[in-house]
Structures are given as structure tokens and as C-alpha cells.
UniProtKB/TrEMBL annotation:
Keywords: ATP-binding, Hydrolase, Nucleotide-binding. The gene is pxpA. Pfam families: LamB_YcsF. Its EC number is 3.5.2.9. GO terms for biological process: carbohydrate metabolic process. InterPro entries: Glyco_hydro/deAcase_b/a-brl (IPR011330), LamB/YcsF/PxpA-like (IPR005501). SUPFAM superfamilies: Glycoside hydrolase/deacetylase. It comes from Kitasatospora setae (strain ATCC 33774 / DSM 43861 / JCM 3304 / KCC A-0304 / NBRC 14216 / KM-6054) (Streptomyces setae). Belongs to the LamB/PxpA family. This is 5-oxoprolinase subunit A.
Amino acid sequence: MIDLNADLGEGFGRWSLTDDEALLSVVTSANVACGFHAGDPSTMRRVCSLAAERGVRIGAQVSYRDLAGFGRRAMDVPPDELADEIAYQIGALQVFARAAGSRVSYVKPHGALYNRVVHDNEQAEAVVSGVLRAGAICDGPLPLLGLPGSRLLAVAEGVGLPVVTEAFADRAYTWAGTLVPRRDPEAVVHDPEQVIARAVGIARDATVTAVGGEPVSVQARSLCVHGDTPGAAQLAWRVRGALASAGVRVEAFS
């Protein structure tokens, strides 16, 4: 059994990057951009409404304040400021989730922040603090979605927050089980057949092939297919079909 998630709502104003409606017919969890790396109020409202209609779980995809760089540029944000910005983003999305008759069910960092909190304890603590600050407007502690073995998940578990381990079918891995940095030309897996095979391997065998060719153990409860990949919706359908054929049930994490 595995959850299938995608990054959605990644547009701004007249600019649109993700095929939200098509992807919401496939995924079980939607990581919705909250306005800091992408997303605007109308986009957030629309995606939350569609997700609620289709029974897709809504997650807050929080990031550094970096619209120009799509949240993928390294930034140094003071911990208290970052915690406030995390809480702010969750609160903004919760307004639209509630208006749609749903709620924010989990939090996932995006881009540079996601990679930073794999190793940076201070920034990980700031993200967790932000999630805790938003707890007053959420139905209990929000689970954090992140990389297995990351400081983020360790810090979250230390304060009693639920955690959900995540893997990527379309991202390259190092021998250490971390993601290859985006600046590396091998960071993204573009071949659909390879993405599908990796998805099945992760879900069924808990392994993925690293860039050096060696198998790496990846224990994941949720599998991500990036929404900004060309043809993402069609690829997500193929991934879901392949998982079903391999005896893997696609279901939102509890």
C-alpha cells in the first residue's frame, strides 16, 4: 500500500505550470503551493475545491519566500522568521481548504527548503515550530512529509508530530539515499519507462537505483510524481496502473 502525491497549484496569476484538474483524478494526496514559491489565492481556492470534490487529501507545500526562483534557491532565513512563515502558509491554505469543506491534512516542504532540512537541524526545528504554531487552527497535529532519515522527520518525531516517509519516482538518488541536487543534469529522471519501473521498485521492494548503479533502500509510505514534469498527468496514470498490476494498493496515508 502506498500514497501517491503530486505538487499542485504551482502557478501565479495568468501563469500556470501544473495540470491540476487532471492530476487530481489520479493522486491521493495534493501538495498545494501556498503562495511563497508559487500559488495565489484564486489558484489555492480552486485546487482545494477540486481536491475536496474528488476526495483527495490536501497538504500545505511550504517553502522559502522565493517566487522568482520557484523556491529552489538556497536561502538563509532566521529560524523564528521561518517558523512564522511556515505557520502563515499553512493558515492561508487552511482558509481555502475549510471553505471547500475539507482541511489541511499534512505539511510538505518544497524545493530548497525540502533539501535543506534533510541535514540542517536548525532549519528543521524552525519548520516543525511553524507546524506547531499552526496547530491551533488545525484538527490536531499535522503530519510532516519528508525524506527518510532526514533531520526534519527526526525533529518532528521528537516533539510528537506524526511523520510520513516519502520517495520520488522521477528524481535521482545518491548512494546515501538523498536526492541528487537540481543543479546536476542527472537530477531528474525523464524516461517514463524508467520512472514507472522505479515507482514499482520503491513501492514493492523498498529499493531504488542510485546514480552510481547501486541499489539503495528507500522505505516510503508516500510516492511523489512531480506535477511540473511535462505530461505529468499521463505519467501519473501509468504509474498508478503499474502499481496496481504489481499488487500495490494506492491509498492515502492514515
